[in-house]
Structures are given as C-alpha cells and as structure tokens.
Write a structure and sequence with these properties.
Layout (H helix, E strand, L loop, with lengths): L11 E4 L2 H4 L8 E6 L32 H18 E11 L4 H10 L3 E10 L15 E8 L10 H7 L8 E4 L23 H11 L5 E4 L6 H8 L3 E6 L2 H13 L7 H4 L12 H6 L8 E4 L6 E4 L5 E3 L2 E3 L1 H8 L6 H4 E5 L4 E4 L1 H12 L9
Parallel strand pairs: 1-8, 2-3, 2-7, 4-6, 7-8
Antiparallel strand pairs: 3-5, 4-5, 9-10, 9-13, 10-11, 11-12, 13-14
Length: 374
C-alpha cells in the first residue's frame, strides 16, 4: 500500500480548480500523475465541413486564454501544485498538441522535472483538415517526466514488452480516437466532452508507470477515463474536475466499472531482474540435475561437460562455473544459463538449463506476493 494513502480522498472526484484543491493534499503522496490540460487551441471562427455541417470544435470557456503569458502562468501554477504532491520517485505524464506542448515542456524543465520520454500518439482516424491549407493533424504528443533526476521510478518494461508481442515498446503509439460506445454522450445524445481520450491510451500509461494499489492523480479529470482504467487495473485514483457536470458523469462512469477480484498473477508482471538469484548449484541440490550428468554446449554439437556435486562443471581437466567454462570454450558473451543444455526425456531433445531455473522459480516463488502488495 502506498504511503500517505490514509490522508488522501481515494477514488473520488473533487470538484474545483486543481490549483487550489491540490494545495490541500499531502505532500509527496501521489505515485503517478496523468494530466490532460487545456490545449489553448486559439480557434478563430467556426469550422465547417465540405457538406456544410459544423464541426463540433473545442470552444469551451476552460480552453480560452487571453494570451500566451496567461496560459504560461496557468501552466506554471498547476504543474507546481502537481510537483508538490508527487512522490520523489513518482512520474508525470502530460498530453498536448502543437498548440501547447512546447510551452508545457519548457515549464516542466524550468520546474526541475527530468524528461524520460516523449511519446507520439498517432491517431488512426484523425479529423481531416477541411480547409486544405495544412497537413492533417494526425498525432498528439505525450511527455513523460520524473520528479527528481536519478531517483528510482516505476517502469514496467516487461509488461510493455508483453503488450507488444515480446518486442520493446516504441515511443510511437497507434490508437484511434475515442468513438463508438466508449464515447460518453449527454442527455441529448451528443458527445459529453470534446477531448475524451481513449481508454487504450490510459491503459498503456497506467500499466507502464504504476503498480497495483498505487495512487494516480488526474488534475483535469474530465469524464473520468483515468479513473475508469485505474479501477480496472486495481489502482486508486484522485480526480479533480472544475466542471460539476463532467465530475458527475465521471463518477457514474467509474462506478459502472466491474472490478475483478485482485489476483497478483493477473495484474502484476514479474520482472526477472528483481527475482531472487538462483545459483546453478540450487538445481543440483533440488534434484533437477544430478552429479555426473552431462551437459551439452549448445543445442547441437559434440562439446559436453560433466556436472559436479559442488555446482561446478568439469571440462578437459578444468573445473569452473557454467559461465567460466562457457567463456573458456568460446570468447564473447558467456551466459551459461543460455549456453548449456541438458537432455530432456519428456521432449526428447536438448533443452537449455535455464528451463530448469524457470521451473524452480515457478515452483518456489509463485506463492510469494510482489513487494508492496502485502
């Protein structure tokens, strides 16, 4: 459980200006912030489609600023308020367009945030440029920053790799705009909020940058996409929304989310780097390999070594670890877990000894809860 949770209004939407409301939250209490602030679109006049239907553009009062200076001052104030409540190990995501993201980025750096990535959300179904005077604006930019440079922060690398067919997740993300059943409608059947973000986008952000039971702050909660996804993934949220109508819709939406019973193997991606180190000798002690058994160097070939009772290998009169002997045989990378193979009677073929290590991990540690989830 995250520290300072007892003083936080967990899983609630607070109605008001985030600059004032965040002043009442505990310092260093939030694990992750996602912010979708006003973009300051600076629209001039109405926009019409070729079929003479009017485009429902963002023209709400909350996106109106008299000048860049006023917008910069607003941005400085809400980011300063966010920085105070964010934990030293916490990170912040902010999304924007070319209208505002560069101004936001400069202020983030001025406040001492450290950039980790910028991510491009490529829209699968962007709105066309009806006037034909510019390129179709088909992306938005997300900035991912940490509060203090060098502090340990949450990045679930292996979860992101898993969501991307076991390839490293790139910084260009391809999602459609929020449409269809996901798009919230008002009592008149019109879209409730002009800038509602797709749940898939928030799913990736929350999965990558937080852990179950962490607290996620959204200072511009809108219709509650952050809260809905946080609930699905067993995170807590604190939402702040200045518009009472949006806040009401958001809470109704969040309460409709069916939250499955928390089961760590479902919601937590193991990080191999954090596993307890298993010495090669452990396989011998637990009978997964036997003293005198032969191991083979590679899936094919005639080179072999004998397993010794003390966890060493014997090869050409030399004794050494699985890594030392591998290095003596072939120069270069010497990860013995990947290079040495045993004969598997079940599969009737050579298998890497790392397969036995994974079996031991599974048998010995699957019942242990990840850190922070006691």
């Amino acid at each position: 459980m995250s520290k300072n949770n007892g003083n936080l209004p967990l899983d609630q939407v607070l109605v008001g200006d985030c600059r004032q409301i965040l002043a009442g939250l505990p310092e260093d209490s939030i694990d992750l912030i996602f912010a979708d602030p006003p973009y300051n679109l600076q629209l001039e006049g109405e926009l019409w489609r070729p079929n003479l239907t009017k485009v429902d553009a963002v023209d709400d009062d909350w996106d109106q600023f008299e000048s860049f200076a006023q917008y910069d001052h607003f941005t400085l104030e809400w980011l300063t308020a966010c920085r105070r409540v964010l934990k030293p190990t916490g990170t912040l995501w902010v999304i924007g367009s070319y209208h505002n993201i560069y101004r936001v980025g400069r202020i983030l750096q001025d406040l001492g945030f450290w950039f980790l990535n910028d991510v491009i959300w490529v829209k699968a179904n962007p709105m066309p440029n009806f006037r034909g005077v510019r390129y179709t604006n088909a992306h938005e930019t997300l900035l991912w920053v940490q509060k203090e440079k060098g502090k340990k922060y949450t990045f679930n690398y292996h979860a992101m790799k898993g969501l991307n067919d076991d390839l490293q997740m790139r910084s260009d993300w391809y999602f459609p705009l929020c449409t269809g059943k996901e798009r919230l409608k008002d009592e008149n059947g019109k879209k409730a909020h002009p800038t509602q973000k797709p749940e898939a986008l928030l799913y990736r952000i929350i999965m990558s940058s937080s852990n179950p039971q962490d607290v996620i702050l959204d200072p511009f909660f809108g219709t509650g996409t952050t809260g809905a996804v946080a609930r699905r993934l067993h995170r807590h949220f604190v939402g702040v929304e200045i518009d009472e109508k949006y806040a009401k819709l958001a809470m109704e939406r969040v309460h409709e989310v069916v939250q499955l019973e928390f089961d760590p193997p479902i919601f937590v991606t193991p990080n191999p780097r954090r596993r307890k180190r298993i010495p090669f000798g452990t396989l011998i002690e637990n009978g997964l390999l036997e003293p005198g058994q032969m191991l083979f160097f590679g899936a094919q070939g005639d080179i072999s070594a004998k397993v010794l009772a003390d966890g060493k290998l014997s090869f050409n009169g030399e004794r050494g670890s699985i890594h030392q002997i591998a290095k003596n045989i072939r120069s270069g990378p010497s990860n013995g877990w990947k290079m040495w193979f045993y004969w598997d009677d079940e599969t009737q073929q050579r298998e890497p000894i790392d397969k036995l290590r994974q079996k031991f991990y599974q048998d010995a540690y699957t019942s242990i809860k990840p850190a922070g989830l006691e």
